[in-house]
Design goal:
Two copies of one chain form a homodimer.
Chain A (H helix, E strand, L loop, with lengths): L28 H4 L2 H20 L6 H12 L5 H8 L3 H13 L3 E5 L7 E5 L1 H21 L5 H15 L3
Antiparallel strand pairs in A: 1-2
The structure holds a DNA duplex (23 and 23 nucleotides).
DNA sequence: TATTGTTATACTCTATAACTATA
DNA sequence: TATAGTTATAGAGTATAACAATA
């Protein structure tokens, strides 16, 4: 028979938790009051679905993000991608190398700076990115199912207020 | 002189990105349309502030979460904490061991199950958790500054709708 | 046979130092 | 001297397999 846990503050050992029972309930009231707790759970939930649905494309969230930045900004440099996506330069090297080896991304000499190289999508990269975008849009619909269009806009607006700071 | 990046779809190399300039702008329009992008950024932002402010207590988010579950559920088992917080049992071992070595958490024999042990906060653990809770509440105010009380409730409600599924 | 707590381990993600080529 | 790209590496975080003790 399942038994509810003792509320916080009850004498230790008076009403201990019941292990083993699949329906044993553990309270997380204080955590539930924290915005960070919900933001993290929402983020992990969305990332989990993203990983599943993007697996056929061989794209992790960071790969898709990098492709998206290159697609929108042909000739962008590694350094600019790092700034835009908050990726440290050493960690971007392997990401770009992988995309380059898959012939999705082209490296061209930068016209103004011999140290840098301009990144571009190959034709195959453009096709893959286009298809991945379609799935990303489906994912968006899935993540925000149960939310009206107005609620989706509200949610993004409020999230931006949380993390955007001067 | 700063120059804006070429819009997506412009001929490759026609208007390349300008590296080096601190104000070179890279567009991330599609990513900006994705809920997961904003949820992740909000989560990372809040976690970052949490790490800074909880450092004096020697508590990472996961440590605070575990303390919170034990505080609210005296006698809870490791397995129950794993279920409540989505932590894998092998990864919880070190967390509990650390809290136990710091004498913040007590392990007591479980009254009903010889395999399990009931976890409790020590007096020192209760004091530390109480102080950490106060800081967590300040953090919450900081994270949701610029949001009205109604907006805070709305944000949490909408986030729950995103990740709570049957 | 199933579960609790545990060890060992591997893989990913993230972070720092330092090097080279160029500006 | 400062910056772009890179290497090597260290530290978290997260994942699976397998074991002893108990149910």
């Amino acid at each position: 028979m399942p038994r509810r846990l003792a509320p916080a503050g009850s004498p230790d050992g008076a009403t201990p938790a019941t292990p083993g029972a699949a329906d044993a309930t553990v309270t997380t009231d204080f955590l539930q009051s924290l915005l960070g707790y919900h933001a993290r759970r929402a983020s992990l939930s969305i990332v989990g679905v993203f990983l599943d649905r993007m697996a056929p494309f061989g794209l992790r969230p960071v790969d898709f993000s990098v492709l998206s930045v290159i697609a929108e900004n042909p000739g962008v440099t590694s350094r600019q991608i790092c700034s835009a996506l908050d990726i440290l330069p050493p960690n971007l090297v392997g990401i770009i190398r992988s995309l380059h080896e898959r012939q999705l991304v082209l490296r061209k000499p930068h016209p103004d700076d011999g140290r840098a190289q301009g990144l571009h999508l190959s034709a195959a990269g453009q096709r893959l990115y286009r298809d991945a975008c379609a799935v990303a849009t489906q994912l968006e619909d899935h993540a925000s199912r149960g939310l009206t269009a107005a609620q989706q806009r509200t949610l993004i607006t409020l999230l931006r207020k949380v993390y955007e700071r001067a």
